[in-house]
Automatic annotation (TrEMBL):
Transmembrane segments: 7-27, 33-55, 67-90, 306-331, 351-378, 402-424
Domain ABC3 transporter permease C-terminal: from-to ranges: 309-430
Main location: membrane
UniProt-listed InterPro entries: ABC3_permease_C, MacB_PCD, Macrolide_Exporter_MacB
Keyword entries, A-Z: Cell membrane, Membrane, Transmembrane, Transmembrane helix
Topology in the lipid bilayer: Multi-pass membrane protein
The protein's name: ABC transporter permease
Native source organism of the sequence: Lysobacter yangpyeongensis
Cell compartment(s), UniProt: Cell membrane
Domain MacB-like periplasmic core: 72-277
Pfam families attached to this UniProt entry: FtsX, MacB_PCD
């Protein structure tokens, strides 16, 4: 029976620790600031607070003698924060790359109900009807700024390990350059319409082999010449571009997948959407390009966030128990010191706060170390992953201040929970027994 009780008692302790950590993590920054100000005021303006500060100074002064146990807490929490921030930074980087693609002044038109270009079809006889719809801006030559496009997934060897990797080969119309003004040719030139030439994004160049300007790439049993490289700061940097009227026949594609258009003023999108809905021949939907690419990032970003939190929680539970063991050992080793303070008039609350502050200080050091390592190792690190079109999207990890703050909250939460039970034990330590044992 005692074993059963101990089992359920231990299980209840784990549940309490996890719940306490979750509650702390979800607190908004102003709630954390309010708690910190309340504790600071108590320490500064009350007698118990002054005693707690004095006891904390004594504990901190003894940390060098307990560097082994202290380093367990610091390193354990640093590991949790480093892994958590790195996982979340991956999701943030992917989301930022796709969110930076497109804008509110352009729209992408897909087949009705399609979630991505890969499952959309726009026939060639529909394209002239689409391009002349109201809401689409016209250029200086009086023609609509419209680019019929298709996307073909091709395989290229990865520079990392030489394995075949999916890459998006995009066929674009003449207006594609005007629709993406942030896209700049940084080496070579644009492809010549009607020729089997391509330009490649810098991100694709860095990740995949054989894309240097001047080289030829064999795709669909045809030789394509790389004539230029471009930068755009968004997901298009992961792509290869060519003339849509050359790419389509090469892959026996008789239809387009999307039409990207420039919108005519603030009401352009409303006019375009209304015109599409009113024409039963088309059965097409439109979205602003910003909304379309932001939507493409939702699923993976959510998955990476959940995965990071799950892994972080598992590691955090381990770090909490490491902190518990270390602080229990520290309290046991300082039993005579704590008993002496109690005999001198230190009540339970100052002792509890002193042990808690000591643990929180170690947790803060671990959090700062983990955040620093994550920032130095991962911020700006370039990787690629599969996007919704089953091709690689090249992006950079993004370690933002918000993520660093999240990591520090986790660190302080681990310290808060990990120091609670040892602090309560220290406060309940019988003075006479502790002095006699010492």
């Amino acid at each position: 029976m005692s074993k059963t009780k101990r089992f359920f008692s231990g299980l209840l302790t784990i549940v309490v620790l996890v719940v306490a950590l979750v509650v702390w993590i979800v607190l908004p920054w102003f709630a954390v600031a309010a708690i910190a100000l309340a504790v600071a005021a108590w320490l500064a303006f009350t007698r118990s607070g002054a005693l707690a500060l004095a006891a904390t100074r004594i504990g901190i002064a003894g940390l060098p003698q307990r560097w082994g146990a202290s380093s367990v807490i610091v390193i354990g929490i640093a590991g949790v924060v480093g892994v958590l921030v790195a996982m979340l930074a991956m999701g943030e980087g992917f989301k930022a790359t796709l969110s930076n693609t497109g804008g509110s002044d352009t729209a992408i038109i897909l087949r009705g109900g399609s979630q991505a270009e890969t499952n959309s079809v726009i026939t060639r006889d529909q394209e002239p009807l689409v391009s002349n719809l109201p809401g689409i801006r016209r250029g200086a030559d009086g023609r609509p700024v419209s680019s019929p496009e298709l996307s073909q997934v091709v395989n290229l060897p990865s520079k990392a390990d030489g394995t075949d990797t999916n890459v998006q080969f995009r066929g674009v119309g003449p207006s594609a350059w005007a629709l993406r003004p942030n896209l700049k040719i940084v080496e070579g030139r644009r492809f010549t319409p009607g020729m089997r030439e391509m330009v490649v994004g810098r991100g694709a160049q860095h990740q995949f082999a054989g894309l240097e300007v001047g080289k030829q790439v064999r795709l669909a049993n045809q030789a394509w010449t790389v004539v230029g490289a471009f930068e755009s700061g968004d997901s298009h940097e992961s792509e290869l571009w060519a003339d849509v009227d050359v790419l389509g026949p090469t892959y026996q594609r008789s239809a387009y997948q999307s039409v990207t258009v420039a919108l005519d003023g603030k009401n352009g999108f409303k006019q375009l959407a209304a015109a599409l809905a009113a024409d039963p021949r088309l059965k097409l939907d439109a979205m602003t390009t910003h909304d379309y690419y932001a939507k493409q990032s939702e699923a993976l970003t959510k998955f990476l966030r959940i995965l990071g939190i799950v892994i972080g929680t598992i590691m955090a539970v381990g770090a909490i128990f490491g902190a518990l063991n270390s602080m229990y050992a520290a309290v046991a080793g300082r039993s005579r010191e704590i008993a002496t303070m109690r005999a001198l008039g230190f009540r339970g609350s100052p002792v509890v706060v002193a042990v808690m502050l000591e643990t929180m200080l170690l947790a803060l050091l671990g959090g700062l170390l983990g955040a620093l390592v994550a920032w130095l190792a991962f911020n700006g690190h370039t990787v690629s992953t599969l996007g919704n079109n089953f091709s690689q999207v090249v992006f950079q990890f993004r370690v933002s201040p918000a993520l660093l703050w999240t990591g520090l909250k986790w660190a302080l939460g681990i310290g808060l929970v990990g120091g609670l039970f040892p602090a309560l034990r220290a406060a309940r330590l019988p003075v006479t027994e502790a002095l006699r044992a010492a």
